[in-house]
Amino acid sequence: MCAAPARTAGWHDPRYIHTSFLKELWPNKGYTYKLGHRLFNGTCVWSQEYWFRASPYPGQNSLQRVIIFGDMGKGEADGSFEFEDFQPASLNTTKQLIEDLNNIDIVFHIGDVVYAMGYIAQWDQFTAQTEPIASTKPYMIGSGNHERDWPGTGSFYQNMDSGGECGVLAENMFYVPAENRANFWYSTDYGMFRFCVAHTELDWREGSEQFKFIENCLASVDRQRQPWLIFLAHRVLGYSSVDFYVEEGSFEEPMGREDLEKLWQKYKFDIALYGHVHNYERSCPVYENICTSQEKHNYIGPLKGTIHVIAGGGGASLHEFASINTTWSIYKDYDNGFVKLTAFDHSHLLFEYKKSMDGKVYDSFTISRDYRDILTCTVDSCPEVTLAQ
């Protein structure tokens, strides 16, 4: 921890955090496990038995279902008072996921995970609330402003949103396959999906270390084996109609997409999802503020742009939309919810937005295409050539 309250009034000894690595697992095979603790007298105390399914190998053709949301936090199920009590809807989100666990394969929680803000015991409360999910499904997190930001610590934004945690809890409570966990950006493969997870609290602009990571994540994937390329980040580096972005005249985090949009276009990114903004919004396939398709629900062939989605309604109090209507915004919802992606095979993907209050689908679209569609050249997606070459 780097400052108060995490080092003073909010301090709570988290005790030991154990990490184990299970090797040589068969892809898509189910396994059971138990956790134990040896007492001083030599006897062992065991947990209940848990079950999980090993991840499919990269490119494996099987049914794969992914949950994505940001900004969930935790809530008091008994209605008792809680410090910074603005995430009661998180209980609805976890309830819906727990009830539908048999139809979920992996979960991504893209920043503003707990909202502990220096009061460390709230991480224990959060892990207790999410244990039925995280004990049986991969629970991948991203870092947000309420995990990382603090002045003078290298964070891109010099605010005090982390409450002095400075990323320490996020980097140690959950394992992610980052080369440097202090950076907390990483790529991960899940069957037919490649996920590039950015860290918006550190510099992402062209010339930065993170920009090089993002381009390598995009360039290194074999789209014939992994056709579904997904970008995840906490702050909105794409498009949003939330009031505080519109007031700035940016419709994004300042300097958000200026350097990244050509990368997304060059490598034909499918979908980019963000948190930070506490509502739901979906754009058309868009490039440089222009819709590249007028279709809204059934995309066939190349998208020619990237679909940007705000999925920051995991549980925290909601943010208002600006009154302005943009040409690129297809669907808005002022409510809590989460996104589900279902890859049926290498050619068919289903996107669904579900509300946390009832788990029903309120927005959806499909993508149907072949590998040759991914190879198709669109604006700024192929090298420039002339007859002289």
Instruction: Kindly give the count of domains.
Output: 1
Distance between the termini: 57 Å
The computed structural class is alpha/beta
CATH superfamily: Metallo-dependent phosphatases
- The helix fraction, in percent, is 10-25%
CATH class: Alpha Beta
What is the name of the CATH architecture?
A: 4-Layer Sandwich
Compute the number of helices.
8
* H/E series: EEEEEHEHEHHEEHEHHEEEEEEEEEH
Flag low-confidence runs.
385-389
Describe this structure in words.
This protein is of the alpha/beta class. It has a single domain, classed as Purple Acid Phosphatase, chain A, domain 2, CATH 3.60.21.10. It contains eight helices and 19 strands. The chain has helices at residues 90-99, 121-134, 145-148, 168-173, 209-219, 243-248, 261-266, 371-375, and strands spanning 30-33, 36-38, 44-46, 50-53, 64-69, 106-110, 139-142, 186-190, 193-197, 228-233, 271-274, 280-287, 290-291, 298-300, 306-311, 329-333, 337-343, 348-355, 361-368. Helix 1 (90-99) packs parallel to helix 2 (121-134).
Element layout with pairings:
Elements: E1 30-33, E2 36-38, E3 44-46, E4 50-53, E5 64-69, H1 90-99, E6 106-110, H2 121-134, E7 139-142, H3 145-148, H4 168-173, E8 186-190, E9 193-197, H5 209-219, E10 228-233, H6 243-248, H7 261-266, E11 271-274, E12 280-287, E13 290-291, E14 298-300, E15 306-311, E16 329-333, E17 337-343, E18 348-355, E19 361-368, H8 371-375
Parallel strand pairs: 5-6, 6-7, 9-10, 10-11, 11-15, 14-19
Antiparallel strand pairs: 1-4, 2-3, 5-17, 8-9, 12-13, 12-15, 12-16, 17-18, 18-19
Helix pairs in contact: 1-2
